[in-house]
Write a structure and sequence with these properties.
By secondary structure, the protein is an alpha+beta fold. The chain contains eleven helices and four strands. It has two domains: 171 residues, Phox-like domain (PX Domain), CATH 3.30.1520.10; 249 residues, Up-down Bundle (Substrate Binding Domain Of Dnak, Chain:A, Domain 2), CATH 1.20.1270.60. The chain has a four-stranded antiparallel β-sheet with strand order 1-2-3-4. Strand 2 and strand 3 form a beta hairpin.
């Protein structure tokens, strides 16, 4: 469960490190951060909601205390997410679970079947942020973790959600995406092709593993149900065979213990593994979106270069005395416009436009190069965060299975002496 396996994270101060030594010190500062203990607030009212306990233990001097806890509701996490997305467009910001529902949970959103997996997902969200060398330094994250005046902080800094007039990170240039919806960077110019292929393959593999794990959970549920049913039948047999009643009852007890053990294992697989796989699928989606944003900036730059080239050709033709087509000449004649004067005016406008386009193309090229470097670094960070998360998840799964088989072995070893006796 989420409460049983808290993860450690590393957070740094809101000031940016000024020297390499500062960077090393900030990276070495550690913080234990957990999201746990969901509880219902304002119960019995229409404004009821679930809050989650965010506990922090740290040796970092930026925090006022070495250990502190705050309660945050899901909308607080949403605000944190949107601010970070807005402020870090060149990062694949880890996503949140859906606000209204979890696809893999049915029923009341206030029940533990909903809140425990959500707490686990929120825990992973904070862990991913704190393991990211850029996002962990976001000032809003420090305030989120520590401030007792969080509500006042949010009210004083309202942020519009994606889709409104104010752009928020990954939604920058949405109209440009529509304009260039069918445009693609040529493969021979796209150095990110291997990264995109690797991310696509990762998404497919995670999705397939999640489907297989879901089938395993269904089988474990059947095993659990059958164990209890088998135990019930053993008890019934004990009434029919009095001289073997004790053996039947002992056998039934171990079947019930098996059912309980399978139930605990199934819940662990669901919460700590299947839910984490779905969270990883969403994280992969954020990386894909980042790569699309990078490609869009490259397309914008190349479109400007193309436009600049065409304008330059047009200007050169006009300067050499050409460029006046038959239709244009007839229109100018009808208006009584002098051809030479009109040509000079067009040259003046083209020169002004070329100057603007040159500046815009240079800026777009620099932006594209900087964005490419940031995305390259972020892909490396994603690979590291992914490896840490998968290693931890598989470690928890291995421990859970070891404990499960120990319980099963110990349970059934007690039956053998009775049967032999």
């Amino acid at each position: 469960m989420a409460d049983q396996h808290p993860s450690s994270t590393t957070i740094v101060t809101e000031r940016a490190p000024e020297t390499d030594e500062d960077k090393d010190n900030l990276w070495m500062s550690t913080l234990l951060c957990t999201v746990s203990h969901p509880q219902k607030e304002q119960e019995g009212t229409q404004n009821a909601y679930i809050s989650y306990l965010v506990t922090t233990k740290s040796d970092f001097p930026a925090f006022q205390e070495p250990e502190f806890s705050v309660r945050r509701r899901f909308s607080d996490f949403v605000y944190l997410y949107h601010v970070i997305v807005r402020d870090h467009p060149a990062c694949a910001v880890p996503p949140l679970p859906d606000k209204q529902r979890l696809e893999y949970i049915t029923g009341d959103r206030f029940k533990t079947e909903f809140t425990i997996p959500r707490a686990a997902s929120l825990h992973r969200f904070l862990t991913r942020l704190s393991n990211h060398p850029i996002l962990r330094r976001a000032p809003v994250l420090i305030v989120f973790l520590e401030s007792l005046e969080w509500n006042a902080y949010m009210r004083s800094r309202p942020i519009k959600a994606p889709g409104t007039n104010e752009s928020t990170g990954v939604f920058d240039g949405f109209s440009d995406v529509l304009i260039n919806a069918f445009a693609k960077v040529p493969k021979d110019k796209d150095e990110f092709i291997p990264a995109k292929e690797r991310i696509e393959k990762l998404g497919e593999d995670v999705s397939h593993t999640e489907r297989v794990s879901t089938r395993l959970i269904r089988l474990q549920h059947e095993w659990e149900t059958d164990s209890f049913e088998f135990g019930s039948q053993m008890v019934n047999l004990s009434h029919l065979e009095p001289h073997m009643a004790d053996m039947f009852k002992i056998f039934a007890e171990q079947l019930n213990l098996t059912g309980d053990a399978v139930h605990q294992l199934r819940e662990s697989v669901d919460t700590n593994y299947v839910v984490s796989l779905r969270d990883m699928e969403n994280y992969v989606g954020s990386v894909k979106q980042l790569l699309k944003s990078r490609e869009q900036k490259q397309l914008d730059y190349e479109a400007l270069l193309d436009y600049l080239h065409k304008a330059t050709v047009e200007r050169d033709i006009l300067a050499s005395g050409g460029g006046n087509g038959f239709l244009r000449s007839r229109v100018e004649d009808l208006r009584g416009v002098d051809h030479n004067t009109a040509r000079i005016e067009r040259l003046r406008k083209l020169d002004a436009r070329l100057e603007e386009l040159t500046v815009e193309a240079k800026s777009a090229g620099e932006t594209s190069q900087i964005f490419d470097k940031e995305v390259s670094r972020d892909l490396v960070d994603f690979e590291r965060i992914k490896a840490l998360e998968l290693k931890e998840t598989m470690g928890i799964m291995a421990e859970e299975h070891i404990e499960f088989f120990k319980k099963i072995l110990n349970a059934w070893e007690t039956v053998l002496p009775e049967l032999k006796g």
